[in-house]
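Notebook entry, structure prediction.
Reason for the run: the old model in the group folder had no record of what sequence produced it. Starting over properly, with the input documented here first.
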Amino acid sequence: MSAFAPIHSVHFYDTNKALIDRLCGIVSSGLDIGNAILIVATADHRDQLLDALAINRVDVAAHTNEDRLTLCDAKEMLSRFMVAKVPNPTLFSDCVGKLMNKAKASAISKEHGLVVFGEMVALLWDEGNHEGALALERLWNGVLNERAFHMHCAYPRDLFAQDEGGMANICDSHSHVVGALSRPN
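New structure, fully documented this time:
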């Protein structure tokens, strides 16, 4: 059995810099210890992450060539498994499961894990598709029950400015919560 325990975290962020700083740390440390990384993010966030990794002297090209770092577009990924505003579990499993299997196989050994970052749920929430976002969070939890990996989600905090109940629902879907209660002065 792997010592890699499942984690499903959520980060509520106020600025893109806060998101990218945290994500850069997750990716850098994961790559340093031999994990595989799968990023499913918007084009802007992927570009910002790549810039931050370069500043931190992470050899993105080498990790990408080794398939240890995989970057995918969140909107394009959603288009593969969303049906009538909700994620289709079979399509999700086919699409995301294959990506996860390929990424995990590139970790430096069986004992090393897979780290996934996704903001597809935030895109759904931002579109007002709260039901779809929560259904996708449940699908991720189902995958976490089947195999151990680290799943990191992120939402702009301002999506919940008038929706404490929505934020509570998101928090309840995660094992670890970052930034739900604190606001900058």
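Summary: The mean pLDDT is 92.
The old model has been moved to the deprecated folder.
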